[in-house]
Amino acid sequence: MVPTTTCRVCRGTVTEFMDFGRQPLSDAFREPDDTGEEFFYRLAVGACPDCQMVQLMEEVPRERMFHEGYPYYSSGSTVMRAHFEATAEKLLAEHLTGPDPFVVELGCNDGVMLETVARAGVRHLGMEPSGAVSEVARSKGVRVRNAFFEKETALRVREEDGPADVVYAANTFCHIPYVDSVLEGIGELLAPDGVFVFEDPYFGDVSAKASFDQFYDEHFFLFTATSVRNMARRFGLDLVDVERLPTHGGELRYTLAKEGARTPSRAVSAILAEEEERDLTSPEALRSFGDRVRGNCESLTKELRSLRDQGRRVVGYGATAKSATVLNFCGIDAELLEFVCDTTPAKQGRLTPGSGVRVLGHEAFTASYPDYALLLAWNHAEEIMAKEVGFREAGGRWIQYVPDVRIE
Ligand code: SAM
Ligand code: TMP
Ligand code: ZN
């Protein structure tokens, strides 16, 4: 029997196409002396044949993922800081030009985008349930409310601050299974000509690159233009623009507007046609995705075991949330990786979830270069390669696994 569940968007029947098995919370880095029981859930992915939405079969309660100690700080990457500064400038120039514009951001995190808006003196509000990251945003002059965005909280914002010209979300909307509440809330909050702009990893890129580690507890949905267009329609919203982004291994930025308020751009019809041609969620496409993923995983584990048997030093680079899927699905643990280095203080000194590899600061990497580094933060490859020329010069080599396993 093929496992099924109810589609979070259209209530159709989601068909499972990939089972990653028992997985921990991707951002639950543990203290080494923590003897408490670790939380696991079944990470499996399916697609809805009715609305095309790719989604997880099981949902992890949101409070387990997003809380006071949520350890992901968006400003940790120089490239992402520049990306969000440019994004803020674009929103200011294109959508926040009226007499007293107002923008609301879902998941503003440490204020990486809103700090530019705040500096421009434009009215804004960040909705951010995770405590520690939001304190950093506040310290930058960003106005933040510690709450999950959903219909109820959206209505309160509307009551207190009036309608929003822009609602923006980066790498956050795909984290939210309760889309009905969020989109109804956005419908209430937006001004008649307002827009909801959001960017998230693109399933078209995940499929092309077999980047299976884009699936983890926090990434509940993997969107396509087709599935977003179908979803938006159900809530009286039109997909009016779409833009491809190079961030996080390939993303799409979607612009939704109230039905009939704006004319969809040519980029929308172009990508919809492209997706129809690619048929990304056909049973054959999904089966071949699964085959590639299993093949890549096997080669990666084989390579790492062989290096261990040769007595080579191998470390992981970047204790990303997505690496939880790779490490736990491929069975990569402290036997195969000496440590994982990461610049985030909240992750250092802890163990990677499920796989139990020590997380050490960046200095552990440079102090004594290993022979090999498994690039777990592959979505930041350009930035990291540029920073780590010394590693290559010292004879070190990178192990990559997206789109294929290779050593360079
Ligand atoms: N926007 C930042 C970026 O692109 O780097 C942060 C992305 S981070 C992966 C996702 C953020 O969404 C977390 O800070 C989390 O606390 C927040 N979040 C999760 N559910 C939310 C909700 N319902 N409303 C607002 N923020 C939410
Ligand atoms: P992300 O892929 O979800 O953005 O997570 C990136 C992780 O990698 C985050 O924990 C910060 C870390 N990182 C480094 O350790 N060094 C770096 O140069 C970059 C860009 C990220
Ligand atoms: Zn559906």
TrEMBL record:
Its EC number is 2.1.1.-. GO terms for molecular function: methyltransferase activity. It holds the Pfam family Methyltransf_13. It is an enzyme of class 2 (transferase). InterPro entries: Methyltransf_Zn-bd_dom_put (IPR013630), Methyltransf_Zn-bd_dom_put_sf (IPR038576), MeTrfase_14 (IPR013691), SAM-dependent_MTases_sf (IPR029063). The keyword Hydrolase does not apply. Residues 7-66 form the Methyltransferase putative zinc binding domain. The keyword Transferase applies. Keywords: Methyltransferase, Transferase. GO terms for biological process: methylation. SUPFAM superfamilies: S-adenosyl-L-methionine-dependent methyltransferases (SSF53335). Residues 246-403 form the C-methyltransferase domain. It comes from the Bacteria. This is Class I SAM-dependent methyltransferase. It comes from Nocardiopsis tropica.
